[in-house]
Amino acid sequence: MRNNLWSLCFFSLFTLAVFAQETPVSSQYSFTLNEAIEFAIENSYESINARRDVAKALKKKWETTATGLPQIDATVDYQNQLKQPVTLIPGEFSGGDPGTFVPVVFGTKEQLSATAKLSQLLFDGSYLVGLEAAKSFLQFSNDSEEKTLLEVRKAVINSYGAVLVAQESVKILQSNKETLEKNYQEARKTFENGLNEEEDVEQLQITLLQTNNQLNNSIRQQKIALQMFNLTIGVDVDSNTVLSDGLDSLTMKNLDPSVTNKPFVIEDNVDYRLSYLLTEQRRLELKLEKTKALPSLSAFVNYGTQANSDSFTFLDNDQRWFQSSILGVNLKIPIFSSLGRSAKTKQAKIAFEQANTNFIQTQQQIQLQYNTAINDYQFSIETYETTKQNLALAERIENKNQIKYTEGLASSLELRQAQLQLYNVQQEVLQSMLTIINKKAELETILNTPNN
Q1: What is the pLDDT of residues 20-33, one digit of tens each?
Q2: What is the pTM of this model?
Q3: Can you name the residues that pair with 297 across neighbouring β-strands?
């Protein structure tokens, strides 16, 4: 009995140990904002795929380059004529009567041949244009990666700030709830003692219920904001992530009006460069259509060997092999295409002109985006300063009404209005802080600040 008990205990401990090893432990992270940006640039899903696009572009460039380099192909051909063709020859060739025919089978039943061919492109205008296009495409992929990283950086800043705001909102609502619960309990005792009306208690109860509801929602929003941040930086959404920077310090870092005085060099903007490369691509397409009217020249040399037999004796040492080799040059001269090439060239020219027009429009749009971003950032700073002043006023008004209500000089309705005003201003301050962070990130993205 004692042995069975020890066996049962050992089995239970072993099972718990195995289960503990198999149970996944949620990952834990801690980031300042700069650390989060660096981590996301390396590990976010968008960054990983952007690097893959650049790697594909490099391979595409080499693929284009390789078409103008020596090409070697080899061919092995085995034939077994299961039923050899019969040829009729005049009978007098073999001593027969004139007018008769004798069936004859020419050649052997089986053949094996092997040929190697070396070819080299000597001149082709489309190949030269292709090399230019491959280089342009690689630059486009690099700039696209840069744009992706800028967008990742902006998304990390936005999501980081959103988490901090959600956390601060929960703290403020918890503090407000504690104050309201205290007011409610005091009002209830006063009512029970017959010193105030029931409506005073009910007014406070309404505010308390609304605040409690907002608090529960903010707690859920805080969890969602953190999951969104995890998704943005490229970790499991349920990871336990701690943000080291505080909302106040992060806001102060982004309060930098001098950034609006930084000269705007439109050529540094990644959207400008991408639009220019699209225009360049259309120019190369036009150039390609023009080169199709030029001749192309290539050369080749091959070497082959062939064996024939009525049975498979090709691996025998005494099998006879016959060699052959050819050296050749191929010149292709386009002469007349029924104006087909001309039509394609004109289409490419129109597309190039459209790209130039779009490029001009893009420049104007980028300039407008910059002007808008400057205005939005300046307005966010002004709004933050205003909401801070409003908060001080709202706190003073609410405090005065608390004192008046305690002394019986103010009604619960007046206190409730002062409290709601304070709570609204508190949320406005938090949102203004987040707006500063986001608008600064938007402006830096347009200025390409991280890469300058």
Answers
A1: 444 344 578 899 99
A2: 0.82
A3: 123, 331
